[in-house]
Amino acid sequence: QVRLVESGGGLVQPGGSLRLSCAASGIIFRFVAMAWYRQAPGKNRELVASVTTHGSADYADSVKGRFTISRDNTKNSVYLQMNVLNPEDTAVYYCNAVSPWPSWGQGTQVTVSS
């Protein structure tokens, strides 16, 4: 059974940075393309960034140049470095496969506010 545990969220001022982590278990992680998603209040969940099994990344236009996704297959983990955060980045952030499994983690709250 897939288990995803996100961490690293918090309250940060505009222009600040955070690094999110996601630990996955119950899968052969190195064979799975992974992604970060986010869901803001009243909005649908959206894909923010993805990384292939070989480490190639892709980003939503809204975060391109500010966010960096990476993975460590030895730790079954995927990361999201978020820089130059703005209030529009406020959301609950989740990791999952690019073709997401039905089971989601609890997510980690990111709040950007002064």
Question: What's the structural blueprint in terms of helices and strands?
Answer:
Blueprint: E1 3-7, E2 10-12, E3 18-25, E4 34-39, E5 46-51, E6 57-59, E7 67-72, E8 77-82, E9 91-97, E10 108-112
Parallel strand pairs: 2-10
Antiparallel strand pairs: 1-3, 3-8, 4-5, 4-9, 5-6, 7-8, 9-10
Quick summary:
The protein is 0% helix and 48% strand.
Regions with pLDDT < 50 over 5+ consecutive residues? none
Topology, number of strands: 10
**Spatial order of the strands forming the largest sheet:** 2-10-9-4-5-6
In whole angstroms, the N-to-C terminal distance is 40 Å
| Number of H- or I-type helical stretches | 0
Percent range for helical residues? under 10%
What structural class should be given to the helix and strand makeup? mainly beta
How would you describe the overall organization of this protein?
The structure is a single chain. The protein is mainly β. Helices cover 0% and strands 48% of the residues. The protein has no helices and ten strands. It has a six-stranded mixed beta sheet, with no helix packed on it. Strands 1-3-8-7 form a four-stranded antiparallel beta sheet, with no helix packed on it. Strand 7 (67-72) and strand 8 (77-82) form a beta hairpin. It starts with a strand and ends with a strand.
